[in-house]
Amino acid sequence: MDRRTFLKTSVAAATVGVVAKPYIARAQSGPIRVGLLAPLTGVVAAGGREMVDGFNMYFEEHGGELAGRKVEVIVEDDAANPDTALQKARRLVEQANVHMLAGNLLANTGLAVANYVKGNGMPYFIPIIAADDLTQRSRIKNVIRVAGYTASQFSRPLADWALKQGYKKVATVSQDYTFGHEQCGGFAQYFTENGGQVVAQYWHPLNTSDFSPYLGQLANSGADVVFAMETGADATRLMQQYASFGLKGQIPLIGAMNMTDQSVIRTMGDEVEGVIVAAHFSEGSSAPETQGFVSSYQKKFNKLPSLYGFSMYSGAMWIDEALKNIKGNAEDREAFIASVMKTDLAGSPLGQTVKLDSFGNPIYDVHIRKVVKNRDGKYWNRPIDVYNSVSQFWKYDPATYMKQPPYSRDFQGIKKS
Amino acid sequence: MSTSSSAPASSTPARDGLGKVALIAIAVGVLAFAVLPLLVPTYQVSILTEILIFAVLAMAVDILAGYTGRTPLCHGAIFGVATYVVVYWSQQGGAPVTGLLLGVAAATLVGAIFGLLAIRTSGVYFLLLTLALGMIVWGVCLRWTSVTGGENGLRGSVRPEMLAGHMPFYYAVFAVVGLITFIMWRFVRSPFGLTLRGIRDSESRMRALGYNVSLHLFLAFTISGFFAGLAGALYAMFNDFVSPSTVALSQSVEGLLMAITGGIGTLFGAFIGAAAIIGLENFVSQYTERWPTVLGLMFILIMIFAPQGVIGRVRDLVRRR
Amino acid sequence: MSGLNAFQLLNGLTFAALLFIVASGFTLIFGLLRIVNLAHGALYLLGGYLGYAAASATGSFLVGVLAAMAGVAVCGLILDRGLLRFVRGYELRQVLLTLGVAFVLNDMTLVIFGGDTYTVPTPDFLKGAVRFWGLFYPKYRLFVLALGVVVFIALWVLLNKTRLGALIRAGVDDPEIIAAMGINIRKVFLLTFMLGAALAGLGGAVGGAFLTLYPSADSEILVFSLAVVIIGGRGSLVGAAVGALIVGMLNTIGQVMFPEFAYFVIFGPMAAILAFRPLGLFGKAA
């Protein structure tokens, strides 16, 4: 980690962490302005707050600077609403004259902003937005998933792992939107191409308060493993109701990483224990970089970091490293984007060296991780297995892969046996 | 407490002719909208564009709320239907002009269907029924993933090349909205519009006079839907994007609030309402992320102190002197 | 498949029981005061958070429930005395004012409690599931079902066997009569408003234990309550019960059988009823 810039000035740190203030356009040589879009109100406000915390934490630890220039992070609330996200992105670009945009949590807000920057070439970094096609079929050159991942990327190694445990029949339950279709699709395609069988798929609307109708069907589906893709409050409810309906002891529950993210499990009890998911990060990993980050985050915010906190932190680090390679010249967008694509990120909380594929999506050593209690009696995710160098295309040839339709409710890549 | 005894849905009827003060006010308003974009930074131009578009939505709401005495909570949905159709059409590679026509037609149709169901009710029930109808549209947009793109919505490229910049687009919208406003003004002053006011003030009397009240209400609803559709189509060009939040209840609520803020039954008040709400939202969100609280407080204060809207309030104050 | 059907039936019933608890408060206020309280969902969520805070602090579910009811009843008092008094008599202004209150309340709960998902802790004897008729069913949901029945009986007794109830019923049918009888109708109105709010609080605490608490839970429960009251009819207890059963069942059926049109399955019938029977199945003209 570069410590030269650290402690340079404590005044600079004061500019960080200020939520949106009126903007004054500055000369090109002034600070680097970063527009951070995060949902600070609405359904996912807690995650949005952690995005801001994680992002700012990086700059606070690094003297409030990006590659030696002062950084000014301008936070805008996207309200988890694509229309608002679009309006705020416009304001950041056209009024606050930012050098880059970063953030957004929900795929719909990210897609709206991506559609906007497609027209104007503004660099836009999306550590949280996982929509497959943004780094595949409809790739936009200036939209890069630094420290992020593609929705279907981690469910393939998980499917492989599940097959190795001897599971043959899976039932999936998932939120009915693209993020869910993609994660389930990755799992279903790999699972069925390698001898498994999908016995049932249930799609429910976001914010389903009552899972009992689906749990009733799951219990009778004949599955020997359940793959669940849930985020936020849905994840809490699914795991809780899964346990209270007595399914927990009966059918093992595995799923997408969002389900056992700290943002979900930190308010939960034993019903989360033993749930297994695949991810690029485990807060319970023994890697020293990870543990260093986890303990300082815990000291600062009094909680274990979630996906939102550590992804934005790592994303900020990625941007920093890339800008250092071009001496902080954020005004030269072409060079900036090229440098981000070339930068390999080492020493980040991810605990591994990560590089981008030619589509702007990182290649990871993917953890199979399990929810266990840590020394303090809190639940966290500990890796139990690892798959090295997993790309968003798995082992498929990218060109061939992208010829198949995007995953949707109707296309899950399921191989008929 | 306000001195006026009028509920938002039945303020004093607007005078038929335009007074001198009103004419000056309109001239100033038109001039402001014509000149302002030349003076402000480009981002503000997009805000002005939005104000014009939402003013049309608020005027469409006003046709029902102000001139028939029926306050709807579904216009965001009707507006959004047009947006959806236009963006969908563009995404499928159709010509933008056809898309715009189809979008407005779809919104008009939805307005007509809602009208058929809703005209039998009035007051709070009308509000609730239109709310429920709007929820259905929202539910369909959210769940009919194969067509609407579900939660993620649809992206298109509706705006033609020559209107790509903020300025040309603004003036195009300015011209269109000016035309629409003129048509709406003629509409509410037409014999048909006068009959609607008669219905608002006393349904039974109009019925006794031999008017077909149901038919008038149905047509008013459909026409209001048509204008909301126009606004929605413009919004599609503005954003090139649509998602369920465009048809959500909050959109209907904001449209209604704009109409109320400007003054129900004043038509042109919609511009003041739209400017106030959108301007305030942009201003407030630079300082705090508690916009929902500010919006809520505004709702509360307006309901208590100025239910007849800003224009109505000013008119009352002027008269009292 | 019969097990599955009985299971889904129970799911619909238990959800209906919660809906009834929340919607009965809504319908009382709507019926007597003519106020469509769009802040009812926000009161539900507030009750849930209060219940969560109190139950976590004391370790007692009962204390949580009581705190939620009391806290939200006080909120109702403030709402009625502090704000609604300024717009008495104007139906639409009241509705829109409560909508504003809902915005403010929700945003404030977000500030105070953050956006994390909370679950009201339940007592140990309600944890786990019981086995009967070959079904494996959570005890807590059965408790909610029983509670719904208890609330129905309690409200029925209150409305039909007490003086206050007689006044409320008279007020629903004709507000002028009791005013003419020389009774302080304001006091009756206020008590009803607080009772209705307390029921929202009760719903929040009870619902928060199995449906969890999160931003936007308020608008979901509000929309369901609206559907219940519109179907059942303003001010009718039986209507609220029947409406809750219909909506609860339709919700389950919709999710299981017509996932794409789940909302349509609930709001379609509601719109139809409103259009053709504007006062609902059990509503009476004022």
Describe the protein's architecture and organization.
The complex is a heterotrimer of chains A (417), B (321) and C (286). Chain A folds into two domains: 10-150 and 286-364, Rossmann fold (3-Layer(aba) Sandwich); 155-285 and 365-403, Response regulator (Rossmann fold), CATH 3.40.50.2300. The model of chain A is unreliable at 1-28 (pLDDT under 50). In chain A, 36% of the residues lie in helices and 19% in strands. The N and C termini of chain A lie far apart (51 Å). Chain A has 13 helices and 14 strands. Chain B contains 14 helices and two strands; from the N terminus they run ααααααβααααβαααα. By secondary structure, chain B is mainly alpha-helical. Chain C is globular and about 60 Å long. In chain C, 74% of the residues lie in helices and 3% in strands. Chain C has a domain at 17-216. In chain C, helix 1 packs antiparallel against helix 10 (237-257) and helix 9 runs parallel beside helix 11 (262-276). The model of chain C has no long low-confidence stretch (mean pLDDT 86). Classes of the chains: A alpha/beta (417), B mainly alpha (321), C mainly alpha (286). Chain B binds chain C through residues 1, 7-9, 71, 117-118, 120-121, 123-125, 127-129, 131-133, 135-136, 138-140, 142-145, 249, 253, 256-257, 260, 290, 292-293, 295-300, 303-304, 307, and chain C through 34, 36, 83, 86-87, 90-97, 99-108, 111, 219, 223, 226-227, 230, 259-264, 267-268, 270-271, 274-276, 278-279. Chain C: The chain crosses the membrane at residues 12-33, 61-83, 95-120, 140-159, 188-215, 221-249, 261-280. Chain C: It is found in: Cell membrane. Chain C: InterPro entries: ABC_transp_permease, BCAA_transport_permease.
